[in-house]
Amino acid sequence: xxxxxxxxxxxxxxxxxxxxxxxxxxxxxxxxxxxxxxxxxxxxxxxxxxxxxxxxxxxxxxxxxxxxxxxxxxxxxxxxxxxxxxxxxxxxxxxxxxxxxxxxxxxxxxxxxxxxxxxxxxxxxxxxxxxxxxxxxxxxxxxxxxxxxxxxxxxxxxxxxxxxxxxxxxxxxxxxxxxxxxxxxxxxxxxxxxxxxxxxxxxxxxxxxxxxxxxxxxxxxxxxxxxxxxxxxxxxxxxxxxxxxxxxxx
Amino acid sequence: xxxxxxxxxxxxxxxxxxxxxxxxxxxxxxxxxxxxxxxxxxxxxxxxxxxxxxxxxxxxxxxxxxxxxxxxxxxxxxxxxxxxxxxxxxxxxxxxxxxxxxxxxxxxxxxxxxxxxxxxxxxxxxxxxxxxxxxxxxxxxxxxxxxxxxxxxxxxxxxxxxxxxxxxxxxxxxxxxxxxxxxxxxxxxxxxxxxxxxxxxxxxxxxxxxxxxxxxxxxxxxxxxxxxxxxxxxxxxxxxxxxxxxxxxxxxxxxxxxxxxxxxx
Lengths: 250, 265
Prior knowledge:
The complex is a heterodimer. Chain A is an alpha/beta fold. Chain A is 31% helix and 24% strand. By secondary structure, chain B is mostly helical. The longest helix of chain B is centred in the middle third of the chain and has 30 residues, at 124-153.
């Protein structure tokens, strides 16, 4: 049997002795599209950072591609679009080409021009997200949706096997959101990339993903959306027992 | 003006500082750490005062103090994760407090030349040390350019790309400390951070890419130094202040020019 792309076993995490996540057990496999949802402050970002090793668990074990996160070195296998890019400063003087190429040029020492095979890889990543025409533009001049595509291209530059995204759709208009989900569908179909995405929008993401991790009160509730699921139960996990449901027919 | 030996010397050192200070400042500004120059310059003053008081070499003691302070800032930043700017205030206070006590002990008459900078008082050994350190700082920045760019842009992603971000951050802090200490003699403690920040502020208005931003910063830095030195020589003005006001004039010209272009006046 294939090893899990991400596995968390009995993981707990505390910050300044305050428990944030308790006894988390979850798995992400090849080709999965997993959503992480929860209320504000429910540790969605903490969970994704634990998965990729930006935070260390206090207890339990996190593995990437079967390798314990402490020993994991194949970072080219993962792509990450952090929340930081949302706060991208408009004046930051970087072109699309420079941002997307950061992942490959960072391995080289000395200031040098991007050319040859590297330029080809940048073009390829930009083509995947349909942003090749904007290669020489300043990132600060792009719209929210276009910026998001550029940051995904940067995460794709090393042809990763899994893409982690932390609330990539905040501040992105509806039209760009639809294009964004089409792009993710394409990446999964054409390149078999697994995706883990934090979202605050339970409505849209639950239609798109096959796995849903709901965070509430430090617990993670794992739902397989390919099987019949109890939607009311998911919402109760998120919002508590006293939640009322209103169904709109329009 | 170039017939005088000390002016030729000043020009060479000035041009070098016009290159080094904005180069280091460029990464600081984009990481929103521009105040670090101010903090370290006050520590450098206490280092220089300590050197004078103990009859040792003020530039070397200033370098020693600023390097220790820069490491202290990194340490405190980890301690105060959510209030990182506190680390700067703490070290700045320590620098000013220590400097005022050391100066009060006497035997530190030359300290004024470190406050506002004085090219004419620079010794031959200081010039050699200055040139060697400037070349080393620029060499390291060129060598680490790609990594520094990634860390400046997004530190978490840089870490995931396999860049040793912690080590490079500490290393870069030491570079900042060295830049502050060697610039102190020329533009003075009170004006060092201006030369690290103002040419960069001007470059951000015109840069089309990260690389061009760095190049513009250097050009504006060098032009400020040449214009400032020339004006201070002919008009008999304070050198450090004239250099900084020249840099401000460049920034102002760009702002006015861009406003005119935008409004189409």
